[in-house]
What does this fold into?
Amino acid sequence: MTSRMHDLTLALAPRCARGALRSAVVAAGPCLVGAALLASGMLMSPTAAAAALAVGAPVGDGTLAVGSVAPPLVDVTWVQGKEVPAWGPGQVYVLDFWATWCGPCRESIPHINALSQSLEGKGVHVIGVAIWPRPGMVPTADFVKQKGAAMGYGIAEDRGGRTANAFMTAAGRNGIPTVMIVDGEGKIAWIGHPMNGLTEELGKLVPGFDAVNFSKERLEREAAYNALITSMKAAEKAQDWATFAETSVKVAELDAARNGVFVIYGYQALLKLDDKTVAPDFGRAAVAGTLKDQAEPLNLFAWSIVDPDVETPMAERDLELARMAVARADALSEHKDPSVLDTLARLQFLDGAVEQAIATQRQAMDLTSDEALKKDLKTRLDEYVRAAPKG
It folds into this structure.
C-alpha cells in the first residue's frame, strides 16, 4: 500500500499520518466509516479529544502557576503573525503549546482557530507555540502553510527548547496540547486543555465574548456530526450506497476543511452501484461544490483514483475526474504543495507525458523538507525515470 507519510492535517483525521489516511481511503472506502475507522483511532469526537494528551518533556518543579508572572515569549522563531516582544497591558494572550506530530494537538486546531476568529478585535491574541520537535515530523512552517486559513492565528516555534522549559517544564506540564492564558497584567490566568474549560475561562476574561453561545454552537455541531455518522453506519450496514453518499456530503458540509474526505467515501460507495453514471456525476459535483476550496481533500480525491496500489483496472478509473480534482488543488496551493505535485505527476505519467512527470516529481521533492515524504516521492521518481524513453 502506498505510504505517503506527509503528516498533514486532514478533514476527517487530523491525528492520522497522511500516508495512513491516503492508504485507508483507497483501500477500504466506505467500510472505514464503521468499526475499522473507529478502531484505528482516526475518528475521534471533540469530547474524546479533550481527554487525550501527547506526552512530551519530563515534569518540572511547578514553579509557574496561575497567578505567576508569565515569562516573555522571546526564545521563538515567528512562523506566522506579529512578534510579541512583551505582554501588552490590558491585552490577553492565549498560548497553545502544540507540535505537528501530536494528534490531539491537531484535533484541537479547528477549535483554537474558531476561538481566534470569534475573539478578533477584542484585545485577545491567540498564538500557537510549537514545542518538543521530533525527528521526521512535518516541519512546523510546512504544516502551517498547508493549513492556510484553517490555522489563521499567530504561530511561534521554540528555539532550543528554551520556551518549553520556561513555560511547560516550569509549570509541571508534560502533555500537549496545553493552553496557558496570560491576562492583561502579564500573569498566568489559566492552564489547561484547549477543549476543556478554555472557552469558559475566556468568557470571564474578555468583555463582549459570548462563551455560552460559542460553546453551544460547538456542541450543536458535534451533535450533528455524530448523528450523521450514525446514519452513515446504518446505510453502510444496509448497503444503501445512495443514502450513504448523500449523508457523506452532509458530513463534509459541516466543515469541509476537516470532513471533506467523507465525500471520497461517498464516491467509492456509489461505484458499487450498477448505474455507472451516478458516481461520476457525484464526484464532479463534489469537486465543483463541497470541495472546491479545499486543496487537501481534493488531492486525496484525485489520489484515490490514481493510486498505483489500487487493483481497479486503469480502464475503469475516472482519470478525468482525478485531473479536475488535482488541477483545482494545484491552483489552490499555487503549485507549491509537494503532495499535490506528486499526484499531478502521477496523472502526467499515466497520460504518457513521462518527461513532464519527471520534472513535476523533482519539483515536489525540492519543495519538501520531510524526509519520509521525500523518500516516498523518490520511489515514484525512479519509476518515471526508468520508464522514460532512452537517449
